[in-house]
């Protein structure tokens, strides 16, 4: 998990991510920026989605949720590397027909 947060910090210029270990599998994450609250919310939203998809739990994604996160990727103008990771982790999930 920590390496993905480091990756977000590397590729999302203007954002700082501070992770503090609290207990086993429990962390505190602080995200700071001088950009707008609108940008901050979209970056955190995409990061949280990405981290949740990495978990072992079943994760069902509807079309409306996909549209929401695609919009967030456009709003934050996510670099290619982040878009590719999101596509690999999120869009390859088996979708109900």
Number of beta-strand segments: 2
Helices and strands, in order, run as HEEHHH
* Average pLDDT over all residues: 85
Name the assembly state.
single chain
Low-pLDDT regions: none
Q: Strand percentage, roughly? A: 15-25%
Structural class: alpha+beta
Task: Name the shape in a single word.
Answer: globular
Distance between the termini: 31 Å
What does this structure look like?
The structure is a single chain. The chain is α+β, with helices and mostly antiparallel strands and 97 residues long. It is 55% helix and 18% strand. The protein contains 4 helices and 2 strands. The protein has helices at 2-11, 37-54, 63-75, 80-91; strands spanning 15-23, 26-33. The chain has a two-stranded antiparallel ribbon with strand order 1-2. A hairpin with a 2-residue loop joins β1 (15-23) and β2. α2 (37-54) packs across α3. The radius of gyration is 14 Å and the shape is globular. The N and C termini lie far apart (31 Å). The model has no long low-confidence stretch (mean pLDDT 85).
């Amino acid at each position: 998990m920590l390496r993905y947060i480091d990756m977000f910090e590397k590729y999302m210029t203007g954002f700082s991510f501070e992770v503090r270990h609290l207990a086993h599998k429990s962390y505190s994450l602080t995200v700071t920026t001088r950009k707008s609250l609108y940008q901050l919310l979209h970056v955190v939203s995409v990061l949280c989605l990405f981290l949740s998809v990495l978990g072992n739990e079943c994760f069902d994604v509807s079309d409306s949720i996909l549209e929401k996160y695609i919009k967030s990727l456009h709003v934050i103008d996510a670099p290619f590397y982040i878009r590719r990771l999101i596509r690999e982790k999120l869009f390859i999930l088996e979708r109900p027909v």
